[in-house]
């Protein structure tokens, strides 16, 4: 038996399946869900001001493990990652500057899906044997849709995707950057990263949320300030950058795939960036202290605004202003991002990018650790949590010292397949989302004055 041939055939099949799932299937399913929920909810995006306001207003005496702001920042910790910079560069490489426009549109429309999936997760959340909250699409599919088998499928893919995209890939980014910038060995970075992560994650979701509340505003703030400084230096080039982004988005003959290429690349990277529809953020949203599902769903939906509508747009403008997309030196999106920031600001740009990639990747490791353990808890019970946390630490070290390329397609595939059962739940339970929204949002004077 030729095991090498079998191995190669399996990898080839996974690669093809990955291309199909991340191609037209998810583009149509995600955009369709985003549009459908936007229309059914009467453009819930109109409430973005209320979403932001509620995220910093604490409800009192409500059931939950962490604060509303803690749930939001933990979700942002997981979603604000390399996709916000390197993913934007990848979208531009594949779909041209117009991909930035479609990524932005995906973010705006994705607010409705993020709101819907988080509302359902809170409505159908439950309490485990230790008295801690358990929630997420797996519980929505079981309790709301009466389809436990779909919940199991979602949980399995979440566990796999977490160890890959949420763990090994992020650790590899940190180790590689530290090695290049400081000439520090990857095995040393692995040990330090494991130690720091252990201190945070072994304390559970409350510990993760406390760190996220501190880390996320700082890392996002420093990155945005750094980008604004770079853009201020090249302020005269900004109007032209926006012009090419918009014109390329609708140009059927544009380079890098034209309209369809820009659309697919933008939507794909939009999901990678904000995870609206993926089903990950609802897991931590369900742990929030909230008087009703609508309140926290509004808070959680604001994460998509910050992640894609703001951070990804700024990243895209920086890259387009740099001009590196006109003559890319390689097909490596990370190298393209490095070239763009160095072109825009020399050593300053290089350090802004390095700080962002390291902190973004580390925060993703923290946020996804909670997603993975709750998925495994659903499959194997509370006793499995400590095992998963220890395995998580081992995979961080492996991600630092070994190339991630061997299992990347498999983890990408699992990441995409998470979205399918979650979106099925959102679409089939959309009536519940609408009813809850009318109950708590349209009648705020009678139901929840805090949401006025």
What does this protein look like?
This protein is mainly α and 452 residues long. The protein is built from 18 helices and two strands. It has helices at residues 3-40, 48-55, 68-79, 86-95, 98-123, 137-144, 148-182, 186-201, 205-233, 238-249, 258-274, 281-285, 293-322, 333-380, 384-401, 405-428, 430-440, 444-447; strands at residues 126-127, 133-134. Strands 1-2 form a two-stranded antiparallel sheet. Strand 1 (126-127) and strand 2 (133-134) form a beta hairpin. The mean pLDDT is 86.
Shape: globular
Beta-strand share of residues: under 5%
Mean pLDDT: 86
Radius of gyration: 21 Å
Throw out a few tags for this protein.
globular, 452 residues, 18 helices, mainly alpha
Brief synopsis:
By secondary structure, the protein is mostly helical.
Topology:
Blueprint: H1 3-40, H2 48-55, H3 68-79, H4 86-95, H5 98-123, E1 126-127, E2 133-134, H6 137-144, H7 148-182, H8 186-201, H9 205-233, H10 238-249, H11 258-274, H12 281-285, H13 293-322, H14 333-380, H15 384-401, H16 405-428, H17 430-440, H18 444-447
Antiparallel strand pairs: 1-2
């Amino acid at each position: 038996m030729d095991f090498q041939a079998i191995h190669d055939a399996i990898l080839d099949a996974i690669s093809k399946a990955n291309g199909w799932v991340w191609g037209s299937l998810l583009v149509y399913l995600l955009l369709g869900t985003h549009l459908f929920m936007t229309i059914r909810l009467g453009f819930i995006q109109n409430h973005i001001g209320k979403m932001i306001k509620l995220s910093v207003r604490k409800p009192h005496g409500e059931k939950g493990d962490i604060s509303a702001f803690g749930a939001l920042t933990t979700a942002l910790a997981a979603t604000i990652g390399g996709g916000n910079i390197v993913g934007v560069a990848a979208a531009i490489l594949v779909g041209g500057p117009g991909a930035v426009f479609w990524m932005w549109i995906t973010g705006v429309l994705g607010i409705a899906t993020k709101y819907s999936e988080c509302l359902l997760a809170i409505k159908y959340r439950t309490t485990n044997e230790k008295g801690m909250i358990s929630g997420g699409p797996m519980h929505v599919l079981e309790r709301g849709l009466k389809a436990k088998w779909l919940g199991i499928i979602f949980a399995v893919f979440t566990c796999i995707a977490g160890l890959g995209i949420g763990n090994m890939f992020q650790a590899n980014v940190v180790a590689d950057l530290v090695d290049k910038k400081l000439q520090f060995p990857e095995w040393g970075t692995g040990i330090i990263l494991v130690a720091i992560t252990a201190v945070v994650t072994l304390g559970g979701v409350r510990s993760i949320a406390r760190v996220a509340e501190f880390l996320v505003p700082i890392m996002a703030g420093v990155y945005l300030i750094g980008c604004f400084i770079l853009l201020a230096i090249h302020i005269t080039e900004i109007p032209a950058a926006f012009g090419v982004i918009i014109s390329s988005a609708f140009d059927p003959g544009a380079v890098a795939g034209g309209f369809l290429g820009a659309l697919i690349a933008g939507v794909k990277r939009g999901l990678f960036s904000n995870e609206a529809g993926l089903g990950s953020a609802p897991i931590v949203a369900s742990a929030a202290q909230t008087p009703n599902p609508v309140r926290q769903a509004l808070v959680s939906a604001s994460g998509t605004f910050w992640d894609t509508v703001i951070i990804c747009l700024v990243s895209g403008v920086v890259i387009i202003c740099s001009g590196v997309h006109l003559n890319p030196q390689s097909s490596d999106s990370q190298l393209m991002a490095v070239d763009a920031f160095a072109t825009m600001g020399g050593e300053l740009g290089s350090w802004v990018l390095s700080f962002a990639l390291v902190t973004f990747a580390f925060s993703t490791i923290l946020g996804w650790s909670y997603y993975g353990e709750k998925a495994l808890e659903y499959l194997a019970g509370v006793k499995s949590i400590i095992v998963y946390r220890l395995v998580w630490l081992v995979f961080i070290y492996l991600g630092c010292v070994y190339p991630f390329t061997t299992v990347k397609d498999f983890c990408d595939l699992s990441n995409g397949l998470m979205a399918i059962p979650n979106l099925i739940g959102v679409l089939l339970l959309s009536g519940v989302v609408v009813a809850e929204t009318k109950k708590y949002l349209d009648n705020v004077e009678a139901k929840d004055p805090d949401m006025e």
